[in-house]
Amino acid sequence: MPLPVARLLWAAGPALRGSWAVGVLLVAFGALLLAHGTGLAGDARPLLLAVAPALPPLGVALSYGAASDPLHEITAATPAGGLRLLLTRTAAVLLLSLPLLTAAGALLPAASGVPGAAAWLLPGLALTTGALALGSFIGCRRAASLLAGGWLAVAFLPPLLSAPGRTGGLPLPLHATGPAAQTGWTLAALLCAALVVMRRASFDRMEKL
Fold first, then answer.
1. All residues at 6 or more sequence positions from 19 whose CB lies less than 8 Å from its CB, including other chains
2. Residue 72 to residues 110, 127, 156, 189: CA-CA distances in angstroms?
3. Per residue, what are the HEC states of 18-29?
4. Which of 35, 116, 147, 180 is the most exposed place for a label (fewest CB within 10 A)?
5. Can you tell me the distance from the alpha carbon of 70 to that of 62, in angstroms, rounded to the nearest whole number?
6. Residues contacting 55, CB < 8 A, separation 6+
């Protein structure tokens, strides 16, 4: 493998070299298969919009920390380590997941009452920056798992717990749509980003990440 490619893969982090990237591809192509290969075309976009926001924070969880990166102690101690390396790997996660999942959503059939393919972007960014901010206190892996798990619970538990025979379609977090909700997600992302900057020194403490 050429040295520049090897350096790029190292900077991108374990997530892009492992199962997370495969999982993102499976979600994107699985939604397309559901829409165009079965009779559930109208359910594909709601399902994708419900799952997509949880994927970037999970990618962050698998990008940084001793549990994910065997070289974490070495890289975190270098000038390029700490928050700088974490942000580099977060950017790599976003550069893969955001365009891929949005493009997949755009190729899915539109459904009545279901927002456009880009409706998940701001919730996804807010969850990702939230994982970084909370990760400065409890570690990225635990923070991302908590936020992603919470999102999926809000998305999927209400339909699963609904009365038998009740038709409501596949899950779609209603609080993620609409101008007011999107404004809220934007503010949340900005506040979390500011907290990450304020807590930047905490990312040098290897034992917490």
1. 62
2. 44, 24, 35, 27
3. CHHHHHHHHHHH
4. 180
5. 12
6. 20, 23, 24, 27, 97, 101, 124, 148
Tens-digit pLDDT profile for residues 155-208: 888 777 765 444 455 565 555 677 888 999 999 999 999 999 999 888 876 444
Q: Which two tokens stand for residue 123?
A: 């919730």
Name the phi and psi angles at 186, rounded to 5.
-65, -45
Residue range 77-116, pLDDT digits in tens: 655 567 888 888 888 889 889 999 999 999 998 877 788 8
The answer to whether the CB of 170 falls within 8 A of the CB of 159 is yes
In the chain, the amino acid numbered 85 is L
The four Cα atoms 28, 181, 144, 26 give a dihedral, to 10 degrees, of: -10
